[in-house]
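Q: Sequence in, structure out?
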Amino acid sequence: MLIETSELIRVNARKSDIFDLFNVREFIGANPYLSKAALVFDLALTGYDRPLSIEDYLEVIGDRYPRLAEEQYDSHSELFAQTVAQVNQLEMGLHFNQWSVTEQPDKDFSRIAIESLHLRTTREVVYSVWDWFEAIERKEDYDLNNQITALQQLFRNSVYGGPTVYALLRSAYHKEIPTFYLWDEGLMQYGYGKRQVRGVATTFDVDSHLDSDFTTQKDYCKRFLAELGFPVPQGDIVNSLEQARETAANIGYPVAVKPVAGHKGIGVTADVRDSLELETAYQRAVVSIPEEGSKAVIVENSIRGKDYRLLCVNGRFVAATERKPASVMGNGRATLRELIDRENYSPQRSDTPTSPMGKIHTDEAMDRYLEEQGLDLETVIESDRQVYLRKVANLSSGGFSIDATSKVHPDNIILAQDIAQHFRLTCLGIDVITADISQSWKESGFGIIEINAAPGVYMHLNPAIGEPVDVTSRILETFFGSGENARIPIISFNRVSLRQLQRLSDRILMSHPDWTIGAVCREGMLINRSEKPLNRHYNTNVRNLLRNPKLDLLIAEYDETVLEGEGMFYYGSNMVVLDNPSDVEMTLTRDVFNDSTIVIKQEQQITIKRQGLLEQYELESGELLEQVYLKEVATILD
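A: Exactly. Output:
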């Protein structure tokens, strides 16, 4: 229970608040309170009035989060912490679940730590929960729904909030693959040092950029696939409306019109049936082309059938999804606009990184397609009539996905793999139209619409209908057999000099002369014996070393000042060497592996823990800790 005190100075609380929340700190990684990046803050009673009982708060909180009502709480602080941890998942199943409460009875407050990925979002979560507790105290309504929506949007707008990026991060988290964002480069890094891979969504630095760029040029790509004998629609590239009309007349309507350079179906119009529709479709394609892009447009046969995405990872077929355009079902009373609004309230359309469907967006393309059907947004739709809102099944425009992995005919799997084998790409999405994906492409109408070197994957992970396929694990397993494969050996000190780092590096290089060793302490930074410029932000130096794609081993100092100020950039040490450590510095021994070696010097006593065995002895007169760890370092090196 938080202790009341009249001596507590309010920091952030209003005059009528029961709780005060202050001393908010952000830790970028493992810290004294959690082994993960965390937001840490202090919670106290203001003394303005006594708080409600825990049961009274739970009566309201448990109505929203029934799981919390089933727990037992020793204090208001623990209830507050668990509520923050629950809200921090933003009602979309985010993987953040670690928290801690450290009571500080002599200081009249509790210290709470909450696991975090995007620290700004977590900070806003904490303040939202604080407002919620105060509203419960005053028996006032609190609009948590709007708060959750705003918090979801804040997270989605972060570098971690894209559906594909978040899905990869979550898989990496569960596989214990270290990840961090390279802000200056706009890239996500998976793994440390020479074990790393970097990328944007499903495009990685090991991919051929020539191949990736080639897939965006629909004209050349289509010609290439045709030369290989793969089924592609007949058509041509045009540079004017007149050429578009000539091509359409030659190949016959209906046609599809799309920009040569494009993605996500932007500017694409399918099933164009006459010259008038062609003019609108052509203008739409031209307008969608970026200013610096080619103004060329493709006009080709519009193939009838269902829209499928076939996904290959490392040249192997892994998943298939049928994509359907957004639609609504009439009830005889509501207008199309009202039906769309109602559909957008569906939990499946929460438009978050983990929702199976996005919001249905109204735009000019929808208006045109409705007009073709003799409808507009104010039309009342009769009962049980399904109205499709678009010709193109773009998930980003409100379409939905149906898992089709188990239905794909073996010939179609071979077709997808044969295409993927021609590209040095980790991921390749192949978009096809066919009446039935369970029939061979050799025996049915089948057309490859385009291929995509940066395919989104959430349609496979969380389809609106059908079983999920864990494609992100397959992607990461392309690079890392396990979390251990993503790491390089790390030695952590609480206290070490630059000269000692030089001697340790020299000792290791004697047995591994081809290695690149990065070492950093408060005095300086080394790569092998070469001293490098030291950034004033200590953890930036650690990041820069782990960012080095040649690095075989990292040696880093983490003393109490850095641990209490920022936390550790990395998690997990293969060897920890502590020289008369403080309680805070002892947390370095918390984040180790089963086969790690720990060396601790307390006065003249040495304690060594190695593969579960404990050894203790006294240093002889004049014997140094350095002599001990130089002998032990061999235990962690291959």
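The radius of gyration is 30 Å.
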